[in-house]
Write the structure tokens for this entry.
Amino acid sequence: MRIENLAQPAMKMFIATLLFLCLCIPGARTLSGAQEGQSAPPPATADQAHPSPAKSRPLSFEERGDIYMARKSYEDAVDYYYRALKQAHFADAALWDKLGMAYIHLQNFRAARKAYGQALHYRKDYSVPLNNIGTTYYYQGKYGKSVKYYQRALKLNPESASYHLNLGVSYLHMKKYNESVEEYRTALTLDPNIFGERSAFGTTIEVRGADPEYYFYLAKVFASLGRVDEAVHSLRRALEDGFKDRKRILNDPDFVKISQEPAYVELMNNPPVGIKD
């Protein structure tokens, strides 16, 4: 398998973004039956899966693939998922999705999309591969295409906070801030802990870099939901990165909602000095 060498900065960006975006793992038999649209827990190690030698049995190809995925040995995972698919006569949608996941980690996005396409061939109502195809396009900077696939995934599963969050991230990179805000707000409404669960809040900050407009809108989302600390944190970052329109902040309906909160008042009375590159 040939993996193209990426420049060091691009590799760092890929790793940071990979932590952020919500790739979805199918509810496979060996992964505690996770529901569609939710990330499954990490695969058990061989020892965890078989605590008693008396009850041991040979691991299936799929289980071996899961273990190699957990160990980040993605080429080995590809090999064993293929073996498992051959045993299943290539008709297992969840296995195709797992193969696509391994290819994403190898940054072989074309192969990943082919695997996800096969998953959809065998199960047309499967939203997980659609979400993950969107993510392959996101990694390649094709945000318009990623939006289309996230939207298709949401048609099948509109209650997925992960899909809304991913769609919001793509809108963000397209500088469609209003659309991004709405998707972030929906994701947080469906799952108030979506940022914390994915370690997404900190990683978003790393990925975006200095973008005061983004942090202004992110602060609006948190303020509209009454999450004062997070709103103030994001607004402070916007000001540090050079957001200068104080009147726009003071007159914004979302910030008016938290205008009497001590943390907000303190920030407005003592704004940080913008940090210059």
Observations:
- The first helix runs from residue 8 to 20.
